[in-house]
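Our preliminary data section would be incomplete without showing what the modeling component actually yields. Below, a chain of 139 amino acids is followed by its predicted structure, encoded as tokens that our downstream tools consume directly.
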Amino acid sequence: MKGFVFIDITVTVMIISILAVVAIPAYHDYITKSKAAEISLLAITVKKAVSDYYAYHGKFPTDNKVAGISELIKGNYVAAIKINHGKIQVTLRKGLEKEIAGGVLNLQPMLKDNPLVNIMSWTCNSTLENKYLPKYCRS
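Predicted structure:
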């Protein structure tokens, strides 16, 4: 018998449909996570500037300018990064996927008690879902 039978075509279309139902949401989630990953890339630079300022001056910088960071720091998906007395606020753009659009990540510097060296760690709070946060902020 030559050619495809109606059953063969139906089964093939059904398998492709099932794969699409699984793949499309997973791909959307992957794209959303990759856009949110820009937070981590930009925040690393700002965290280092805050840490360096504290190491040199013994206090936290009051704003971006004092920390030596541009007021205009932003990325393709990050709208703004602001420093306020050592606290860093990262705001995502509004026109992104609904899961991350306009999301905010706040990073708070914390000094660990150590009489020899002040070691800084960071605490996070955010309006974003846990899976979209940088790894160091996930609970």
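The chain has three helices and four strands. The CA atoms of residues 86 and 132 lie 23 Å apart. Preliminary results of this kind motivate Aim 1 of the renewal.
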